[in-house]
Design goal:
CATH class: Alpha Beta
Distance between the termini: 21 Å
InterPro entries: Heavy-metal-associated_CS, HMA_dom, HMA_dom_sf
CATH architecture: 2-Layer Sandwich
Protein name: Copper chaperone CopZ
GO molecular function: metal ion binding
Organism: Gracilibacillus ureilyticus
Structural class: alpha+beta
Keywords: Metal-binding
Helix content: 25-40%
Number of strands: 3
CATH topology: Alpha-Beta Plaits
């Protein structure tokens, strides 16, 4: 298992958290996702055999959020 973190553009509403956590959490290989509203950070733990940091970032962008770090 690998844990990675992403910095997002500032989130504008608490429902953004649920949206991101639900979509990433349902991806194959993702074990845990935590989104912090105040800091706009995402922490994800995943199995590198099933997914990658790049795939997680792609999903975040598809949801309409910008990854900045």
């Amino acid at each position: 298992m690998i844990t990675t973190k992403f910095q997002l553009e500032p989130l504008t509403c608490p429902s953004c958290i649920k949206k991101i956590e639900a979509k990433l959490g349902n991806m194959e290989g993702v074990n845990e996702v935590k989104v912090l509203f105040n800091s706009s950070k995402v922490k994800a733990t995943y199995n590198e055999e099933d997914t990658s940091k790049e795939k997680l970032q792609e999903m975040i962008v598809k949801l309409g959020y910008s990854v900045i770090g």
